[in-house]
Amino acid sequence: MIDLARRVAVQDLVAHYGGLLDREDYQGWLDLFDAAASYRIAPRENIDQNLPASLMLCETKKALTDRLVAMLKANKYRPIVVRHVIGAPELIEADGERVRAQAAYSLYHVDGDGHAELYSIGCYDFRLVFVGERAAIRDAVVIVDSFLIPTLLVKPI
Amino acid sequence: MIDLARRVAVQDLVAHYGGLLDREDYQGWLDLFDAAASYRIAPRENIDQNLPASLMLCETKKALTDRLVAMLKANKYRPIVVRHVIGAPELIEADGERVRAQAAYSLYHVDGDGHAELYSIGCYDFRLVFVGERAAIRDAVVIVDSFLIPTLLVKPI
Amino acid sequence: MIDLARRVAVQDLVAHYGGLLDREDYQGWLDLFDAAASYRIAPRENIDQNLPASLMLCETKKALTDRLVAMLKANKYRPIVVRHVIGAPELIEADGERVRAQAAYSLYHVDGDGHAELYSIGCYDFRLVFVGERAAIRDAVVIVDSFLIPTLLVKPI
After folding, report:
1. Mean pLDDT value across residues C41-69
2. Which of C19, C57, A31, C80 is nearest to B45 (CA)?
3. How high is the pLDDT of residue A151?
4. What is the mean pLDDT of chain B?
5. Is some CB atom of chain B closer than 8 A to the CB atom of C80?
6. Among partner residues B43, B87, B121, which is closest to C15 by beta-carbon distance?
7. Per-residue pLDDT at B149
8. CA–CA gap between residue A55 and residue A41 (Å, rounded)
9. Rounded distance, CA B49 to CA C95, Å?
10. Chain B partners of C87 at a C-beta cutoff of 8 Å?
11. pLDDT greater at residue B144 or residue A154
12. Chain C interface includes B15 (CB < 8 A)
């Protein structure tokens, strides 16, 4: 197992992940990722059946950065705000410097009239590395249970 | 109060509870329960008025195991996946080896078309015991605020 | 940064905040606030644009107490129960005796027929002080992303 300080670092990472996206602090969000990070969004049934198709796949941090820039440009035409409510992270594996943690999320999109809809629910599956006592995301897989197609991927999940 | 290691054990238990159900790891879920465990699901108003009626009552771990097997058979006919988003556990009482903790939950059911609905919201009311530093559920009461009757109890909450 | 015990105190505070409101323990809820506390509910866009308008503003704990009494009287005419599902608190600033923490919430209202609706989603923005190892709310800002106007402010958020 990992010590309490590192467990807290995992909790912090998950809390920051949602908070930074909700505050649209995308640079801060990118900074949660390790230099060798990957980011994938995939439907749950693809994950369960080991199917390779993804809704989004960025195999490098540069690809993720580029994709984020593209998303934010598209987003100018349809202003929405987002809110992540994320459950406590579950330690799936914890082995020295590497930790795998999952956390269920519910993600809401709110339009300009203040109408909220449940945009996506699912689970973050993070493989984390530690930089000192700080946790960073090496590989993020967003396991999507459900989503509204029309607005998919206007912003990261 | 209880020490930090045991508080973390309570957080872990709650995170595992939701994660194991979401991953359909029912044996792992059963293993969260103490050998002398009970499990009850009841509407909030029955709990508030001390009415004995339950939506489900398993007074022993064997009864819970049997009920789970029955549920899973019924479930073959209506495939759904579930996702629990659970708030942080609140320590209601903490007295040496015994802890009472509550945690609000929202439970989503997702059908084969990727359509999610809020299936149930409510609160877990757990009385926990410790086995070393690990927490186990002695008595679980699932306090249900709302639910969709048609599919009730196809899976544990 | 703050030590582990105080971090746990922040987590506790947030968990109690939701739990006490859900159990309608309003005195307990008021006790979470420091004697010099303020409480404000405001739409997210007002917060983002630094607009002063609020949905509710109590600049003193006495004002909050009075407002709560008024709410509870109004509430007699429309019984609802509430459930808060709150994400883990994110430490925004932590500087000695003062901590600023944010936590996303989803708040459900359930009517007498057991029908739940998402009443409000948003984020708590708490400025906390410590009394020994216990955290208390100095200034609470409830940042509301969405809400149902007709029943607004029947109960605190």
Report:
1. 92
2. C80
3. 56
4. 90
5. no
6. B87
7. 58
8. 5
9. 45
10. 87
11. B144
12. no
On chain A, the residues whose CB falls within 8 A of the CB of B106 are 106
Give, to the nearest 10 degrees, the angle between helix B4-22 and helix A4-22. Answer: 60
pLDDT of residue A121: 95
Report whether B7 contacts C8 (CB < 8 A): yes
Left, alpha or beta for A77 (phi > 0: left; psi -120 to 50: alpha)?
Answer: alpha
Distance CA C143, CA A74 (A): 26
- Please say if the pLDDT value at position B17 is more than 60: yes
**CA–CA dist C80, C75 (Å, integer):** 8
Closest CA in chain C for residue A104: C87
Residue A146 has which token pair? Answer: 């459900």
**Residue among C44, C85, C102 minimizing CB distance to A19:** C102
Q: Roughly how many angstroms between the first and final C-alpha of chain B, as a whole number?
A: 29
* Average pLDDT value for residue range A68-94: 86
| pLDDT on residue B31 | 97
Report chain C's mean pLDDT, rounded to a whole number.
90
Q: Which of residues 97-116 of C touch B (CB under 8 A)?
A: 106, 108, 110, 114-116
Pairwise CB contact (< 8 Å): B85 & A106: yes
User: Mutating which of A123, A144, A147 best tests the B interface, going by the most B Cβ atoms within 10 A?
Assistant: A123
* C5: contact with B, CB 8 A cutoff: yes
pLDDT in tens, B125-142: 999 999 888 899 999 999
The three-state secondary structure class of C28 is helix
Cβ neighbours of A118 in C, within 8 Å: 118
Domains and CATH numbers, chain B: 4-144 (3.10.450.50)
Q: For A7-57, what is each residue's pLDDT tens digit?
A: 999 999 999 999 999 999 999 999 999 999 999 999 998 898 899 889 899
- Quote the CA–CA distance of A15 and B98 in Å, as a whole number: 29
pTM for the predicted model, two decimal places? 0.94
Interface-testing mutation among B11, B45, B47, B90, with chain C (most C C-beta atoms within 10 A): B90
**Residue A6 contacts C where some CB pair is shorter than 8 Å:** no
Residue C122 pLDDT exceeds 90: yes
- Which amino acid, one-letter code, is at A105? Y
Question: In whole angstroms, what is the distance from residue C2 CA to residue B129 CA?
Answer: 30
Predicted local confidence at residue C17, as pLDDT: 98
Interface-testing mutation among B85, B105, B134, with chain A (most A C-beta atoms within 10 A): B85
Q: Please determine, for the modelled complex, whether the ipTM score is greater than 0.85.
A: yes
Subunits with at least 3 CB pairs below 8 A relative to chain A?
Answer: B, C
Could A145 and B4 be called an inter-chain contact, meaning their C-beta atoms sit closer than 8 Å?
A: no
Q: Is the pLDDT of residue C143 over 70?
A: yes
